[in-house]
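Take a look at the protein record below with the fold in mind.
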Amino acid sequence: MEEHKDSRMEQKPREETEEGYPEYSFIQETIKKEKGAVRKGLFRMAGFGLVFGVSACVSFSALKPAMDSIFKENPEKVTIPAEEEPAEDIPEETEPEEVVQQTLDADSYRQMQRSLTSIAVKANRSVVEVVGVEETLDWMAETSDYKTSVSGVIVADNGRELLILGKSSVVKGAQKLLVIFNDGSSCPAVLKKSDGNLGLGIFAVNRSEIKDATWAQIETAVLGSSNAVSKGDVAIVIGKPFGYAGAMGFGSIASGKNTLDLADGQYRLINTDIAGSKNGSGFIVNLQGEVIALIDQGTAEEGSTELVTGYGITDIKTVIEQLSNGKGVPYIGIYGVDVTEEIEEQGIPKGLYVKNVDADSPAMAAGIQSGDVIMSVGDINVQTYTAYHQALTASSVGSEVKITGQRQGADGYVDIEFNVTIGSKE
């Protein structure tokens, strides 16, 4: 009995913690297991989060093109602000100021050149090169001379696309279109809408295709007023006026009075004294860096094709807005002239005298002929070519409009009426 008792008394005493409480082994084991379970739970949650994140990224990437396509259907409407009519200045009687003759030297010339260059460089942030890529064209080659390219200018951002104005001739024969920005980066582009009458188009670049670094280098152009241009004003040309991209040149406005007659309208031309390429393209800007003309050497008169000439921007602002919103430019196909008082004295009634009608045009289909005098388009009375153009511009492509006027018969002029379906020349 004593031996048995002694053996029980010889058991190892329990250890105590620093606080003096006994530390039981089974409690230690339980705590250890709980810590391991928590750690495993955290790893499991992290794993689930990683899998969810990867799945979300893959799903987003897969659905992004489809979502872009859906949202592109409702881009923001582009609005080109209308120009305000200049207020008539009433001269005040003031004492003449003393004119101080300024002496100019080489430094003055260099300062002037630096100032003009600074304006051109800033305006050039809105200029791009639109390239029509053919199958045989290695457009990535450093020696490639983009012969199927034209200058374009950024005119709007509809929230989905960057919209660029340029000559639509670049599309002919092209397998695909590219836009090269002034920092050298390029993005795929599409022709959003074109007008075959003026030979202009709006090219669209998906905003998501443009790199952040490029966004920092580009701007939307400010469209000025070509109606405010006067002979002798400073002219700055940018784009490809000399046949190669990224060029700039300086000169002056030679004339802002010439016009070009096209179907359904008359367009003011801006002529400069700057020599350029016969196939040049680009833009004319003023001292404020505003675009005042789109260069189109095809508008120049014979004998002056080497002087930079283009459409005054004021007369094509409505076209820019329509094309930017994916709408066709209203077209009937009439070439006209105002019936002045001198012409009216010859017995021709007041209105728009039809000189010619385009073949296969809505006007010809409706029966309008050379010699007719148009007096109204819809509910709008027409007395001049400008009024006719404005009435047509306010109409919608595909709609039917009633045109009234007079035609000369055996016994003089008689009333005529036509129902014309407005088309679009692309």
Q: What stands out?
A: The radius of gyration is 36 Å. Confidence is low (pLDDT under 50) at residues 1-34. Residues 33 and 321 are 72 Å apart (CA to CA). Helices lie at 2-9, 25-72, 106-123, 212-215, 317-324, 341-344, 362-366, 385-393.
